[in-house]
Design brief:
By secondary structure, the protein is of the alpha/beta class. It has two domains: 238 residues, Rossmann fold; 257 residues, P-loop containing nucleotide triphosphate hydrolases (Rossmann fold), CATH 3.40.50.300. Helix 5 packs across helix 9 and helix 11 packs across helix 21. The longest helix is centred in the middle third of the chain and has 43 residues. The protein is globular and about 85 Å long. The N and C termini lie far apart (60 Å).
Length: 592
């Protein structure tokens, strides 16, 4: 693979001097166009052999184009804040907005390559991490990002000459460390591991460019011309897509002006996802049973006031002790609340937080994205809200807006919401793999119950603010929303992150079911890590007196795959195994 980067290619001084003025002008012009029409971000990753010109390439870009349009990141060992979250948290946090160029030194490739070379990873671990990298880059590229990856290469003899030359330089000698020479001694191992990394992560959407780094002028021109050509192509393509989007939007507006009923979002001309779900608007669908998972729920379930008070007190007591134990184990909790307007999400959330210490949780209400959030991948705003270890994050609405409101209202193209199912499952798999206890709820009410609650809000002054014109409009689209919910559950209720469907016509029943389901989820997650858990029957009294109950060692009924080797995850007291999602549907409906 690397033979073509050891040919001794050179660019003479005269050629370099003749090419650079025009090239620099073109790059500055393209950067200005990118800023004025922020249709996509650019990510440039520089990795490769020590001494091959990674840092020099980044410095060159800072001197050639406007540094105000650049974001530069180099990653060392993770900080305490970063270790408290999944490995990719810091990379999502540092993504450039549309219109800017991100420069990354080694980035997400450094850790897995080092772990493999130093035998902290076996091949399976390494390939699993590379697969996760490929998924990450694919998600960004599908969202429009231009990803350019440069592997800066030197042959073994050339690297030795470069390191010796740097050591002798009075100004640059500090750059050569004992670690560089250690890595030079392991050159063959690094090349072997790098070759596999490049093979498994060089895709059509995020290809690697292997750059011969022996001649400085050749190296510089290779990087700069690659950037120029790629940005120019991406700008042309992005402008064409934007023009087509505006054309379709105008056609839809004209159609809506003629026809009173709301028209569906225009179908995306690009191929749909491989997994298709037959819905009622197809010829085949009209002949099949069209019941949804929501229609299978028993909406008559309810609790009397006495049953509610007794059950709620007991469930909150159990939750209090389990959350304390999770905190001691360094396990964070993420709760996702979705449901119909007026289904009681806020009331259920308040009953959950009543059992927690206010210093340990945050509730994140999700509304329409801000300009800052629109400038990045839609998952960016959810990654940034992940709490540190031992904390609880509650999402009032969530990342599932992509396949619900954005799908039904036409804010996302069909191709975008269809590929989101896989992206959401991959996102949640990373959370669970890290050790986050994830619980997802859909609160379901009938159309009749929703209407009654809307009218009650209209008549109650201190609740009137909750009811908006959008709520009434969404109610008119009940059927497409129900179909979207059905497909959401079908595609994203997995063994590692199942949905809990909550019958919420009776608020008392719904609140108790939410907390009991959360307790079940926490008990099973902590048990898989071999945590010391209190017997369920002792939790109530123990929580009331705020003293630790007698604990019992609970053995896991099943084991997740993993070998405990370093993979960038936080080392908690409990052992984190790798729970790999398998995409199997599993919506849970525990009884209250």
């Amino acid at each position: 693979m690397f033979e073509a980067a050891e040919l001794g290619r050179k660019v003479d001084k005269a050629t370099y001097k003749a090419m650079t003025p025009q090239l620099r002008t073109e790059l500055l012009q393209l950067q200005m166009e990118l800023k004025e029409t922020p249709l996509f971000p650019v990510l440039m990753i520089f990795a490769g052999v020590d001494g091959a010109g990674k840092s020099e390439s980044i410095n060159l870009l800072h001197s050639w184009i406007d540094p105000r349009g650049l974001i530069t990141r180099a990653y060392d060992e993770p900080s305490d804040e970063e270790r408290d979250r999944p490995r990719f948290w810091r990379y999502w946090r540092d993504l450039p907005p549309r219109g800017k160029i991100g420069l990354y030194l080694s980035a997400w490739y450094s850790r897995p390559i080092l772990d493999r070379v130093y035998s902290r990873f076996d091949r399976g671990d390494f390939d699993h991490e590379l697969e996760r990298i490929a998924q990450f880059e694919e998600a960004l590229a599908d969202d429009g990002a231009l990803i350019l990856k440069f592997w800066m290469h030197l042959g073994k003899k050339a690297q030795k000459r470069r390191l010796k030359a740097l050591e002798k330089d009075a100004l640059l000698g500090w750059r050569v460390t004992e670690r560089d020479w250690k890595h030079y001694a392991m050159y063959d191992d690094f090349v072997r591991v790098a070759e596999r990394a490049i093979m498994r992560t060089s895709t059509h959407k995020a290809p690697w460019k292997i750059v011969e780094g022996n001649d400085e002028r050749y190296r510089e021109l290779t990087v700069l011309t690659t950037l120029r050509d790629a940005v120019a192509r991406q700008l042309d393509s992005a402008r064409a897509r934007a023009a087509e989007k505006e054309r379709r939007k105008a056609e839809l507006a004209a159609e809506l002006a003629v026809h009173t009923p709301a028209a569906p979002a225009p179908a995306d001309p690009e191929p749909a996802a491989a997994i298709e779900v037959v819905t009622s608007d197809t010829d085949a669908g009209t002949l099949l049973d069209q019941r949804t998972v929501l229609q299978s729920l028993d909406m008559t379930r309810s609790l009397t006031k006495e049953e509610y008070n007794r059950s709620l007190k007991r469930a909150q007591a159990e939750l209090h002790v389990l959350y304390r134990q999770a905190k001691e184990e360094g396990r964070s909790v993420a709760l996702v609340f979705e449901g119909w307007d007026a289904a009681g999400k806020g009331g259920a959330i308040r009953r959950v937080t009543s059992a927690l210490d206010a210093r340990d949780y945050q509730v994140i209400p999700i509304a329409a994205p801000t300009d800052e959030e629109k400038a990045r991948h839609y998952l960016w705003r959810f990654w940034r809200h992940l709490s540190r270890a031992g904390r609880v994050t509650i999402f009032d609405r969530s990342w599932y807006g992509r396949v619900l409101v954005e799908r039904v209202e036409g804010f996302a193209r069909e191709q975008e919401w269809r590929r989101a199912y896989a992206e959401l499952c991959q996102f949640e798999e990373q959370l669970v793999d890290f050790g986050i206890i994830l619980a997802k709820y859909w609160l379901h009410i009938t159309p009749e119950e929703q209407l009654a609650r809307f009218k009650a809000r209209e008549q109650t002054p201190f609740k009137r603010w909750k009811l908006t014109e959008e709520d009434w409009r969404n109610r008119d689209r009940w059927e497409p929303y129900e179909q979207a919910v059905n497909e959401m559950v079908e595609r994203t209720s997995t063994l590692v992150a199942p949905w809990t469907l909550v019958e919420a016509n009776d608020k008392r029943y719904a609140r108790v079911k939410v907390i009991e389901a959360l307790c079940d989820r926490m008990r099973s997650s902590l048990a898989l890590d071999g945590a010391e858990l209190a017997p369920k029957d002792s939790l109530h009294s123990a929580a009331i007196v705020h003293s630790p109950p007698k604990t019992t060692k609970i053995k896991a009924k099943s084991k997740r795959k993993g070998n405990g080797k370093s993979n960038g995850k936080r080392k908690h007291k409990g052992k984190h195994a790798k729970g790999k999602g398998n995409g199997k549907s599993k919506a849970t409906q525990p009884s209250a």
